[in-house]
Amino acid sequence: MSEPTRILVVDDEENVRRSLAGVLSKKGFEVEQAPNGADALKVYRQNPFDIVLCDMRMPKMDGMEFLRELGGADAAAEVILMSAYGDIELAREAVRAGAADYFSKPYKMDEVMLRISIAEQRLKLRRENIQLKQEFIQQNSFEKIIGRAESMQSMFRTVLKIAEFKSTVLISGESGTGKELLARAIHVRSPRKDRSFVAINCGAIPENLLESELFGYVRGAFTDAIRNKLGLFEEADSGTLFLDEIGELPLGLQVKLLRVLQEEEIRRVGENQPRKVDVRILAATIRDLADEVRAGRFREDLFYRLNVLSVKIPPLRDRSEDIPLLVEHFLQRCNRKLKTKVRGVDPVAMKLLMEYAWPGNVRELENQMERAVILCDGDRITPDLLTDKVSKTAPQSAAHLPAGQLSIKKTTRAMEEELIKRALAETGGNRTRAAKLLEISHRTLLYKLKDYRIDADSYAGTREGRR
Ligand SMILES: Nc1ncnc2c1ncn2[C@@H]1O[C@H](COP(=O)(O)OP(=O)(O)OP(=O)(O)O)[C@@H](O)[C@H]1O
Ligand SMILES: [Mg+2]
């Protein structure tokens, strides 16, 4: 049997309160009473109710204020207000402020019961709705990675198959597509899940420190080496080592890494004795490593050794059907993190979110949602809460596109190039600030500049530069 519905009756007139509570208890509800809004709030906060029947006019805290304290339309409970005859206008205003319903006093018990049963229905629908949304997200995700697009679903199937083996996996995808998230998911689905997952960004550590970072060193190996230091390979022993931005690994270290992968043993810097390690390697890159090999920047033998299994995460613009789901996921997460109560996104804003090209992929969408939630006063995300980039740029630049151009790949590249040029013009060629505007990493920008053959320095005389 399901739990009885909990009802709180709030009224300063004792006889009204008592008689209502009496009848409702007899009908099997779990009922409590309070003589004013302030007391009601205390009782409510100790143990929330499903439905609150609340008088409009009371000393201390009146019905409207109580409703506001509960969160108005976002209140978890259904609040039904009771107004004295003649107060109907006030009661209507309360409904606009988020009350579920109202009735006037003197009341007929039949009418009260009808309103309560309507409120119960609505409560049930609301709860089912929240649960369905959560289930839907879960059904369309893998670990914490959301994706219902076929490209993502087929990636999840691949990952499930390869997770349990020790083979190296090369994960590729643009910035912000979830490469690290995927690496963690693979680890969690592997027999190594209870051992450590160690991550290192090969592009973020100076070349001269990278070797000792990876392999450790022994005392006296160099001037500062006053004690032995464990490298990340040993830290990850019997676990997983995630080599992020593997494309940035200097050529010299590529040789050493290859040897480690082949022999499964490392040498600490300053030591000749090899040590056995049992590490599963996952590597990630935003570059096309095959291209890097052709350009002579990446060793072919290491590429083949890493690329035993490969997974490519598609960019967000190629799977816009995932956007509503991601939006819902980030809304729920922001609400939990920021204690906000934003319930949804209005249709116009959703359309903009779905049309935007997301050069920064899921990370950019995540930032956009967090920003909108913080700026949001009501319970819905409206277009004015989105940045201009999302709400204005996309349709405008779409209008410039040559007619008959339907290739998403070519179009988004053209758009991306255009956005980069605008950001450079905006910042007078300042790459760091341009990367910020574009919401991509500095490194990604440098890579794209090369890719599109854009000379950032030629923007030095523009707007910002002249200031
Ligand atoms: N499919 C997804 N579902 C839910 N969250 C995602 C998804 N993809 C990415 N994210 C979130 O987006 C953010 C960026 O993800 P992550 O750091 O894994 O990307 P990345 O590909 O490693 O980016 P970069 O190349 O810039 O390092 C994280 O907060 C992550 O949780
Ligand atoms: Mg990353």
Explain this structure to me?
With 467 residues, the chain is α/β, with parallel strands linked by helices. It folds into 3 domains: 6-136, Response regulator (Rossmann fold), CATH 3.40.50; 149-314, Rossmann fold, CATH 3.40.50.300; 318-459, Helicase, Ruva Protein, domain 3 (Orthogonal Bundle), CATH 1.10.8. It has helices at residues 14-26, 37-46, 63-70, 88-96, 109-139, 150-162, 179-188, 207-215, 232-235, 251-263, 289-294, 300-306, 323-338, 347-355, 361-375, 388-400, 408-427, 431-438, 442-452, 463-466, and strands at 6-10, 30-34, 51-55, 78-84, 101-105, 141-142, 145-146, 169-172, 197-201, 216-217, 229-230, 240-244, 265-266, 275-276, 280-285, 309-312, 344-345, 380-381. The strands form 6 sheets. Strands 2-1-3-4-5 form a 5-stranded parallel β-sheet, with helices on both faces. Strands 9-12-15-8-16 form a 5-stranded parallel β-sheet. Helix 13 packs across helix 15 (361-375). The termini are far apart. The mean pLDDT is 89. The chain binds adenosine-5'-triphosphate and magnesium ion (MG). Adenosine-5'-triphosphate is lined by residues 144-147, 173, 175-181, 286, 326, 362-363, 366, 441.
Topology (elements, then pairings):
Layout: E1 6-10, H1 14-26, E2 30-34, H2 37-46, E3 51-55, H3 63-70, E4 78-84, H4 88-96, E5 101-105, H5 109-139, E6 141-142, E7 145-146, H6 150-162, E8 169-172, H7 179-188, E9 197-201, H8 207-215, E10 216-217, E11 229-230, H9 232-235, E12 240-244, H10 251-263, E13 265-266, E14 275-276, E15 280-285, H11 289-294, H12 300-306, E16 309-312, H13 323-338, E17 344-345, H14 347-355, H15 361-375, E18 380-381, H16 388-400, H17 408-427, H18 431-438, H19 442-452, H20 463-466
Parallel strand pairs: 1-2, 1-3, 3-4, 4-5, 8-15, 8-16, 9-12, 12-15, 17-18
Antiparallel strand pairs: 6-7, 10-11, 13-14
Helix pairs in contact: 2-3, 13-15, 14-16, 17-18, 18-19
Adenosine-5'-triphosphate binds near residues 175, 181, 326 and 441.
